[in-house]
Amino acid sequence: MDRMSALDSGFYFAESENTPMHVGSVAVFDGPAPTYGDVVRLLLSKLPMVPRYRQRVREVPMQLGRPMWVDDPHFQILYHVRHTAVPRPGSDEQLRNLAGRVLGQRLDMSKPLWELYLIEGLQDDRWAIISKVHHCMVDGVAGSDLMQLMFDLSPDATHEAPRDWSPQRTPTGAGMVAGALAEAVAHPLRQISSMPAGGGAGRIVKQLVDSGKTVASTLPSLAKQALTPTARSLNGPIGPHRRWAWTSGDFAELKEVRTALGGTVNDVVLAAISTGFRDLLQGRGELSSDKLVVRTMVPVSVRSDSQKGNLNNQVSCVFVDLPVGNPDPLARLESIRGQMDEYKKAMQAVDVPSIIGMGDYVAPTLLSLGVRAALAAGQVWCQAVTTNVPGPPVPLYVLGRKMRSAYAYVPIAGGTRCSIGIFSYQRTMTFGINADFDAFADVDVLSAGIRRGIEELLEHARAKQATPEVTQPEVEQPAPAADGGKPRKRSAAAAR
């Protein structure tokens, strides 16, 4: 029995009728497809590695404490693992449409918060897996660690036989209230006692002062963002249905752009996405200014190496202005690069895990009301969510079948009607675009624009690499008398 962290509780309380808060993915494999029974037995053999998959959420009465994870005494894997197909030969579009419907539906919050679908019938003898896991259960980077649940590094991997499992006793309501009250007292004391002797209170004060200085130093940037015109037409109410699209790029292409034009691969990715949003807004006739931006929230993992395997969310975020109004793709890349460099400096100066941990002191009832009120009110500060989840550079297998590609699904909420999940696997980077059905009938324009953005930057990178360095011609200048009056060669630039 575990208690949710404050951040995980926020994701749990954010769930509503029109706001399913699960993350997901679509993985496509080379055939033939395994049987449904083989998939079920595989998962049963792996579940002991991740006990959370047999647990459900239990709220503390009167919300006197954060929600708990407890074993589900009625766990039935046949409910969570499902089997369907598209009409043969199923196209990518048919798979996307099916995935959009499946991923757009809410999980049953009274059961363990995950589902998996085995999809047959794809063309070229392929098949797929659609997976859904609630965001309160695991964030994207931890999700990469959970690939071991059913993925193998070798097609010849063997698996243990499923083992019997008995759920732990579910606590009573009175017991949960007592535990919550005890935790409310014990947790702050543990935090303070874990600090070096004599430095507890002083260290807390110092962290707050240092954090305040860093926040103050970033105020000019925040003020500038507040005055920057944003594409607010991308904000608005969210309905219950979703459109989903995807595109991809070769990792070698992105590295080539980075090498020639500077920055990081993430900078290049964001620059390509800015091209996609520019095409989208241009198609809608909404490029109102050359200073127009689409502000995207970029989650940043603060999980340390020692925290790998910990299922609690460990994320912070930054807000990046994608300069969609600027017609120059190189200027857009440079702007994004400058913003990310500034954020990196600020993140290094702040103890982000400690700040996230401060949420553990917020009263659960206030946390619940705060999250729900903020999402219901909506916001216009950011227009998109863009998250990059690094995947493995080596091939993965399920029951001996190689995974060909994978696409990430990121939820939308709080008036932000579009999210882009980026996933790297071997030599490919994919972009999974989740958008509100009514607001993004033109989601394919965004998808095609991202691909066009990659090609546009690649063209500039190759043009720069092909341009030879211009060398200055040498001219003869009279030498000083000490050199015997012999002429000495200098470059034309030096001569000027």
UniProtKB/TrEMBL annotation:
Keywords of the record: Acyltransferase, Glycerol metabolism, Lipid biosynthesis, Lipid metabolism, Transferase
Gene3D superfamilies in UniProt: Chloramphenicol acetyltransferase-like domain (3.30.559.10)
Compositional bias (Basic residues): 487-496
Residue ranges annotated for the O-acyltransferase WSD1-like N-terminal domain, each copy included: 4-269
Keyword Transferase assigned: yes
The keyword Cell membrane is assigned to this record: no
Domain of life: Bacteria
Catalysis: reaction(s): an acyl-CoA + a 1,2-diacyl-sn-glycerol = a triacyl-sn-glycerol + CoA
A GO cellular-component term linked to this record: plasma membrane
A GO MF term: diacylglycerol O-acyltransferase activity
Enzyme class, first EC level, given as a word: transferase
Biochemical pathway: Lipid metabolism; Glycerolipid metabolism; triacylglycerol biosynthesis
Pfam families, A to Z: WS_DGAT_C (PF06974), WS_DGAT_cat (PF03007)
InterPro entries the UniProt entry points to: Acyl_transf_WS/DGAT, CAT-like_dom_sf, O-acyltransferase_WSD1-like, O-acyltransferase_WSD1_C, O-acyltransferase_WSD1_N
Family annotation (PANTHER family): O-ACYLTRANSFERASE (WSD1-LIKE) FAMILY PROTEIN, WAX ESTER SYNTHASE_DIACYLGLYCEROL ACYLTRANSFERASE 4-RELATED
Family affiliation: Belongs to the long-chain O-acyltransferase family.
NCBIfam families assigned to the protein according to its UniProt record, in alphabetical order: acyl_WS_DGAT
Protein name: Diacylglycerol O-acyltransferase
